[in-house]
Design a protein that fits this description.
The structure is a single chain. With about 180 residues, the chain is α/β, with parallel strands linked by helices. The chain has a single domain, classed as 3-Layer(aba) Sandwich (Rossmann fold). The protein is built from eight helices and five strands. Helix 3 links the parallel strand 2 (about 25-30) and strand 3 (about 65). The longest helix has 20 residues, at about 40-60. The protein is globular, with a radius of gyration of 15 Å. The chain starts with a strand and ends with a helix.
Length: about 180
């Protein structure tokens, strides 16, 4: 099986795609989300991710987790000047680029075959934009990118149902301080 590095924004979103991806790939979750605010929220989401993996691995899966460094300055630096952008605009694009670039570099440097992100499971995220960023990074770093629209085939509904099934924390905003205020 090819080794897939799956950027995860949270446990609920990854819950909608992991079971399917594990049929085809040796999956490692990459939790890199310096956009999440405040720190307490970041911890809740990370713990939800860990709880989900514990549940799935107890069912016979073998999903690993890499926790990247949480440094909110990474996010603040790339969105400087874009604080007042509307949700889904240029600020979000910069955030996607930051997180996918970090994921791609980690995948390349640690001998993964392919990378992607769970973010396309959300109906609030532009999967075409996410995939175009992923494809550009794929070319830049010479590593394969898995093009995905995980909201297809009821992926989002599956993530909602799995959050309930596994009793994992499900947030009510995207993650950054600006999405809290909207």
């Amino acid at each position: 099986m090819k080794k897939l590095l799956l950027h995860s924004c949270c446990g609920p979103c990854s819950s909608g795609v992991l079971e399917d991806l594990c049929k085809e790939y040796d999956v490692t979750i990459y939790f890199y989300n310096p956009n999440i605010f405040p720190l307490e929220e970041y911890i809740k989401r990370l713990e939800a991710q860990k709880q989900l993996l514990l549940e799935l691995n107890n069912l016979g899966y073998d999903i690993k987790l890499v926790e990247a460094e949480y440094n909110q300055e990474d996010f603040d630096n790339v969105v400087k000047g874009l604080e007042n952008c509307k949700e889904g605009g240029d600020r979000c694009t910069k955030c996607f680029e930051l997180r996918l670039d970090n994921t791609c570099k980690y995948a390349k440097n640690n001998n993964y075959d392919i990378f992607t992100t769970t973010m396309s499971v959300s109906p609030h995220k532009n999967f075409e934009l996410l995939n175009s960023i992923g494809e550009e990074l794929s070319k830049k770093y010479n590593i394969d990118y898995l093009w995905a629209n995980f909201k297809k085939n009821n992926g989002y509904l599956k993530s909602i149902n799995n959050s309930k099934k596994y009793n994992i924390y499900r947030q009510n905003y995207c993650g950054c301080r600006y999405s809290v205020w909207k």
